[in-house]
Design brief:
heterodimer, A: 425 residues, Aspartate Aminotransferase, domain 2, 14 helices, 16% strand, B: alpha+beta, Sufe protein. Chain: A
């Protein structure tokens, strides 16, 4: 049976929802959109950076602007009510998606990074001090690493990094050494955006809670690609971005346990987050609005919910099964090609991405050559510079997959990688 | 085929695989190291001037990075020989792309100009026109 026959859903029907997948590339990159010189079919393998957006989600944005564009929580007029209801209900959709108890536990942010900063500022700056420590891992994205590193500098708290084994997994014995009674927060990436490692968050959460520390999972790569339930994970906080899961840019979410969010002071002050304001003092709105100061990303929030509805229609178990299939195929094919070093755990045990280097070819050269074949991958440090230092490389190439990618596209990747390798041999 | 394929013409690959003037000078007038943080490219340029201190007599470089940055540094090392300090100052991005003889895609220009920037900044530090603590970076 061919790998294609194992697709868990109708891939052609899914691809038809993403017209951008039909575009051609190769022309002038300073001219946005398909134009003269664009003659090579696009093979988009960069969804871990940002995913594409199906027509259903694009239509949701257009419907909002064409039909009921208005500011939320402001007016009594009908348009404002329609926008407010849709925007608020989007929080319910996101809450359901990750197993939160309700909209009180879901704060819309700009992205994962802002969600991370919200907790770092609202909780970290207030609660941390000398003698405390925050435990991260060596495979953290800069969004978490830089944030806690800087909060550590400002508060005097120690920041510790759980080491990564040669196979690209967390060293759980080292984790047990890092997490102690002075640990206040364990902030670990769920699925590594570089190694593809799926970290044992429930186990880490149990360790953290044994020491009365909070747990923050960076779900930027996991929530878009597999079923994620905050109760199953046992986390206190979870952050993720809409644009990596068929939604628009400019919208993400912070899940926080209601009792915790309730205790935190606001991170941004301004309109929409207040209940009563006098010249002397102010009181705050209920959750989650307390943390959503100013006019929010309304269209993006509503479209975020539409993206989740799109994914739920396909089923997150199916999305994960598809990712697993493509990751294993890519891992095996790149390994078989020879001269390719792949980082992280084996193909059957990783998220839907493969970071690698080709012997004798710098990742940026590789990406330039692959671009000639229409193959879009990421090249660089993937916002994990310290991890690349640990791997002993300055940069790597990364191919990442999503529900619309096919085995044929991975074949195109592998063929182009082979051409690049031969060019530099 | 787009810009990328043109970028890897034989001349570029030749300079990448067999870099000219690669190594160290025994007695350089100035040495400077610069990097391109986004891709980790690092280049060290060493320059020896003639007795008058005005004309470049010898150039050596070492580095680690992509084919575009390394080939560009290699070709520049040949080009700089016999050039005056003023002429080095005047080298701009167009001069580098002309030297390379290929179209450089917008995202890769910073790779192509790293060697030139290192040589120019080294010269300025040597003449006291730039603070040595300012490390060369091609990100702006």
């Amino acid at each position: 049976m061919g790998v294609q026959e194992q697709y868990p859903f109708d891939i052609e029907a899914v691809r038809a929802d993403f017209p951008i997948l039909d575009r051609k590339v190769g022309g002038d990159p300073e001219m946005p959109g398909e134009g003269p010189g664009d003659d090579t079919p696009l093979v988009y393998l960069d969804s871990a950076a940002t995913s594409h957006t199906p027509d259903q989600v694009v239509d949701t944005i257009a419907d909002y602007y064409r039909g009921y564009n208005a500011n939320v929580h402001r007016g009594i007029h009908q348009l404002s009510q329609e926008a407010s209801v849709a925007y608020e209900e989007a929080h319910d959709t996101v809450a359901d998606f990750v197993g939160a108890s309700g909209r009180e536990e879901i704060v819309f942010t700009k992205n994962t990074t802002e969600a991370m900063n919200l907790v770092a500022y609202a909780w970290g700056l207030e609660e941390l001090g000398p003698g405390d420590n925050v435990v991260l891992s060596q495979m953290e994205h800069h969004s978490s690493l830089v944030t806690w590193q800087q909060i550590g500098k400002r508060t005097g708290a120690d920041v510790r990094f759980i080491e990564v084994t040669d196979e690209g997994r967390l060293d759980m014995e080292h984790a047990a050494e890092c997490i102690d009674d002075d640990t206040q927060m364990v902030s670990v990436v769920h699925v590594s955006n570089t190694l593809g490692t799926v970290n044992p968050i429930p186990e880490l959460a149990a360790m953290a809670h044994d020491h009365d520390a909070y747990v923050f999972a960076d779900g930027a790569q996991s929530v878009p690609t597999r079923p994620v339930d905050v109760e199953d994970l046992g986390v206190d906080f979870l952050a993720f971005s809409g644009h990596k899961m068929c939604g628009p840019t400019g919208i993400g979410a912070l899940y926080g346990r209601e009792a915790l969010l309730d205790e935190l002071q606001p991170y941004l002050y301004g309109g929409d987050m207040i209940r009563r304001v006098s010249f002397e003092d102010s009181t705050w709105e209920d959750l989650p609005w307390k943390f959503e100061a100013g006019t929010p990303s309304i269209a993006q929030g509503i479209a975020f919910a539409a993206a989740i509805e799109y994914l739920e229609e396909i089923g997150m178990e199916n999305v994960q099964a598809h990712e697993d299939l493509l990751a294993e195929y890519a891992y095996d094919e790149l390994t078989a090609l020879g001269g390719v070093e792949i980082y992280g755990p084996p193909g059957h045990d990783r998220g839907g991405l493969v970071a690698f280097n080709v012997e004798g070819v710098h990742a940026h050269d590789l990406s330039s050559i692959l671009n000639d074949y229409g193959v879009a991958i990421r090249a660089g440090d993937h916002c994990t510079q310290p991890l690349h230092d640990e791997l002993g490389v300055a940069a790597s190439a990364r191919a990442s997959f999503y529900l619309y990618n096919t085995v044929e596209e991975i074949d195109a990747l592998v063929e182009a990688v082979g051409e690049a390798r031969d060019l530099f041999a | 085929m787009g810009l990328g394929s043109d970028m890897y013409r034989q001349q570029i690959l030749d300079h990448y695989k067999n870099p000219r003037n690669y190594g160290e000078l025994e007695d350089p007038d100035f040495t400077h190291v610069g990097e391109n943080p986004s891709c980790g490219d690092t280049i060290r340029m060493q320059v020896a001037l003639d007795d008058a201190g005005e004309t470049i007599d010898a150039v050596r470089f070492t580095g680690d990075g992509c084919a575009i940055s390394m080939a560009s540094a290699s070709m520049l090392s040949e080009r700089l020989h016999g050039m005056s300090i003023e002429e080095l100052d005047d080298l701009d991005t167009d001069d580098i792309t002309e030297m390379l003889g290929v179209d450089i895609s917008p995202m890769r220009v910073k790779c192509a100009v790293l060697g030139r920037q290192v040589a120019q900044d080294g010269s300025k530090i040597y003449r006291g026109e730039l603070d040595p603590d300012d490390r060369t970076k091609t990100e702006e």
